[in-house]
Amino acid sequence: METLGRRERKKMQTRQALRQAALRLFLEHGYDNVTVAQIAEEADTAVTTVFTYFPDGKESLIFDDGVERAEGLVAAVRNRPPGGAILRALRAYLATRGPFATDPSPELRRTTELIMNTPALRGYQRELWTRCHDTLAQAIADASGHDPADMVVRALARYVLEVPDLAAGEPEPRAAMDAVFDLLETGWNGP
């Protein structure tokens, strides 16, 4: 296991302090009522430091950078049981995330509510998911023997990546997520 140097540890601490300050202020005052300057002050940093660590702006302060998300999607496809369905593996992965998780902590519930009720945060979250499109399409193609440029592969990747935005805002997010995956797995049976 690699040990982080002092500089790397300090960067991680600063990043974490900024995230915690932003989330605390957003939950207390509402996203639109908090400025980057207030977050910087709360975390005892300069405004420029906020943008150094979070160049995508205020929206990005409470999210991961998307790398973990892409890696999780790929791992779900690659590490599924032998003969296991790709969509089942992706459903299982999403079931562990945010509003779909079983028994989420009160903080996760409040954070999810904040995201779903704040257009800028909801839009940024959707963007983070859709940034994974090419990576997920490649993983699906590799696992299925299809070309990643195949429209069916690209469409499937896109549909899966839209599930979090589509289902998370529903009164019962997990049931909504399952309904979408049921549709993807069985196809449309209506007229």
UniProtKB/TrEMBL annotation:
Coiled coil region boundaries: none
PROSITE patterns in the record: HTH_TETR_2
Q: Which UniProt keywords apply?
A: DNA-binding, Transcription, Transcription regulation
Q: Is Transcription a UniProt keyword of this protein?
A: yes
> What SUPFAM superfamilies does the entry give?
Homeodomain-like (SSF46689)
Q: Mind telling me which Gene3D superfamilies this protein's record contains?
A: Homeodomain-like (1.10.10.60), Tetracycline Repressor, domain 2 (1.10.357.10)
Q: Domain HTH tetR-type: where?
A: 12-72
Query: Where along the sequence lies the DNA-binding region?
Result: 35-54
Q: Which PANTHER family match?
A: HTH-TYPE TRANSCRIPTIONAL REGULATOR BETI, HTH-TYPE TRANSCRIPTIONAL REGULATOR RUTR
Protein name (Swiss-Prot/TrEMBL): TetR/AcrR family transcriptional regulator
Taxonomic source organism: Microtetraspora glauca
Taxonomic lineage: Bacteria, Bacillati, Actinomycetota, Actinomycetes, Streptosporangiales
